[in-house]
Amino acid sequence: MKRRSSVRIKSALFLQPSLLGTLVLFVLPFGVVAAYSVASGSRGGRFVGLENYQALLENTAFRLAARNTALLCGTAVPLVVVLSLLAAMLLSEEIPARSGLRAALLSPLFVPVASVVMVFRILFHQNGALNDLLVKLGADPVNWLQSGWSPVAVELLFLWKNLGYNTVLFMAALAAVPRDVLEMSCLEGAGRFRRFFSIKLYYISPTVLFVTVLSLISAMKLFREVYLLAGAYPYASLYLLQHFMNNTFESMDYQKLCAAAILLAICMTAVMGLLFLIERHLGKDLENV
Hints:
CATH superfamily of the domain at 66-240 and 269-288: MetI-like
Distance between the termini: 40 Å
Structural class: mainly alpha
Radius of gyration: 24 Å
Order of helices and strands: HHHHHHHHHHHHH
CATH class of the domain at 66-240 and 269-288: Mainly Alpha
Helix content: over 70%
Shape: flat
Number of helices: 13
Largest sheet: none
Strand content: under 5%
C-alpha cells in the first residue's frame, strides 16, 4: 500500500507542470472568452446574458459563414475519408509502381501552402489553365473563384492537401487487421465486399473515427488557404467562419467574436461526441463478432 501511495504521489507531482500549463494556456483563456461573451464590454462591462448570442444569430454575415462552413465540412470531410480509405485499400494490394504512388500521396505534406495556393490560382483563374482547356474543348470559360463553383476549387485543394496523410493512417490500420480472421472468412466463402464490411471495417473503426476527427479539424482550419486564394472578403459561397472571426477581430467587436467562438466550441463538442458514440457502438458490435 505504501509503495502504491508513493507511486501515486510521484505521478501526481510529475503531472503538475502539464496540468498547470493546460490551466494557464487553455482553461483560463477559455473562461475569459466565455465571460466576455455574456458581458457588454471587455472592461467593466455589465452582464447581459444571451444578448450577444442573440445578436450574433441575427447577424447575416455569421449565418452565411456558418452555412458555408457546414456545407464544406459536410461534403469535404466524408469525401476525403472515403477517398483516402479507397486509396489505402488500393495501395495495400500488389500493384505496379506502388512505392511511387505512396510517395506522390505524401508529397503535399512537404510543399509550402503559399506555393500550393499559387498553383491553384493559376489553374482556377478566369484566364487560367483550366479555362484554356475548356475553351479548346468548345465550352465556355467559368469564373471559378467568383461564382457558385468556388467551393469546388477549395474542396479540391482540401482533398489534395489531406488525402495522402489519411491514406497512410488507413494503410497502417488495414495492415493490423488479423490475417487469420481474413483467411478463415475466405475459406467460408466470404467475398471481397463481405470481408470488407463485416471484418475490416469493424477492425479499422477507431482509425475511421480518428481520420474523421482530423479531417473535420482541418476543414474548420481551412482559412489560410482560402484567404490566400480569394482574400479577406471572398465570393459569398467562400465566406467561412474563420473569415467572420478574422474580420470581427479587426473591427474589435470582441463580444461578438467571443460569442461566435463559444458557439463553435459547443457545436464541435457535440459533433465529436456523436462521432465517439458511433465508434463506441461499432466497437460493441466488434466484440460480438
